[in-house]
Amino acid sequence: MAENFHKPTQFSGSKFESFQGGEDPAAISRVAHETAQALLARVRSDPDPEIVDRLVAYTDENGIDAVAELWSRATPRSLPGALWRLYLIRLLIRQDPEGTSFLYQRGTEVTPAIDPLIAGAMVPTGTTEIIILADQILRGIFTGDFAVALDRAAAFCRVSSVGCTSIADDLETTEPGRSTELTRRALRFSTTAQEFAACARLWRSESLD
Known about the structure:
One of its GO terms (cellular component) is DNA-directed RNA polymerase complex. By secondary structure, this protein is mainly α.
């Protein structure tokens, strides 16, 4: 990997990208797909509430290291790639609930789309509400409609992207550096939204593996 992670890992918005590394890409890909398929099949066949709770909160106790090691290098439009991004989104939210809720709330105020309804966060969306949303989305992949969970994640990312862009425009003159960073984050959110949406379509066609 490009970086050494230590528990608990602090994963800032500027690092919102896939990790690098691995000496045997074929083996890494095989393990990523096999573990993702086995985990999802096992839990969805018998969604014991305690097990689901532990999986949703896994990175709170163990950091992102193990999840990253398994799935961070999987292609975005794959089952392990989708799982990795879902965990990453939750981690980003929990590490900065104030910042992410601010971006998301701004997005809900300026977007013309129905994405806030799809994402399903409580309104107005503050720190508590954005953390609840993150847990609901991740829980949905184990206990609900997997494609719907992906659609909600995609909608969250699109709303956040719009929020980033709006605030970046506000700061363009007074804080150009911050404006540029938010513009980059908006692009990352937008790209991730496209990846989630593609995975949802693949899941519905039984082609996500």
